[in-house]
Amino acid sequence: MSIRRDEHEMRNIERYFSPRDKEFKWHFVRPKTKEELKEGDAPFVSEQPIELFGLFQSDFGSNCSHVRVHPILHWTELDVWRFIKRENIPVNPLYFADYVEKAYGWKNKRFRSLGCQPCTSPIDSKASTIDEIIEELKTTDIEERSGRSQDKEQIMRRLRSLGYM
């Protein structure tokens, strides 16, 4: 399992290599010292390594307890479904409208993002094959996690600060 930047705006600040401390917390910025702060400058310094042209920092120093790696950070949801099709990877049937109709009686509904039952709801869709999902994604502007009922920004910040993402 991996995260993707297009899943949520908070993931745009993630890096492919994400160092965590002993409490599994992610420190992506720190306040600047008085000596570092110049008028008109941002008050924070990035603690994340810069990723340019495929070159990645691999020495994270003594403050790092472990590093999380996000190899598909640059992929989109469409990239994932194309990969699933190409590699013939089995998927949960809840992603398909025909299964959801048979299992729950909900016509023209499918799950786009799966989570726990109380906080995940289906979206309007007739897609019942991977090809139909791919075609649907080419024309939709609905966010992937639109079927989740949680306060997305707040929960994402909290989970990340606790080291879950």
Distinctive features:
about 160 residues, two-stranded antiparallel ribbon, alpha+beta, 4 helices, about 25% helix
The average pLDDT score comes to: 80
Secondary-structure element series: EEEEHHEEHH
Structural class: alpha+beta
* Largest sheet data: 2 strands, antiparallel
Number of helices: 4
- Count of β-strands: 6
Strand content: 5-15%
* Strand order, largest beta sheet: 1-4
Radius of gyration based on Cα positions: 20 Å
Distance between the termini: 11 Å
Q: So what's the overall shape? A: elongated
- Stretches with pLDDT under 50, minimum 5 residues: none
* Helix amount: 10-25%
Descriptive account of the structure:
The strands form 3 sheets. Strands 1-4 form a two-stranded antiparallel sheet. A two-stranded antiparallel sheet has the order 2-3. The protein has a two-stranded antiparallel sheet with strand order 5-6. The model has no long low-confidence stretch (mean pLDDT 80). The protein has 4 helices and 6 strands. Helix 1 runs antiparallel to helix 3. The chain has 165 residues and is of the alpha+beta class.
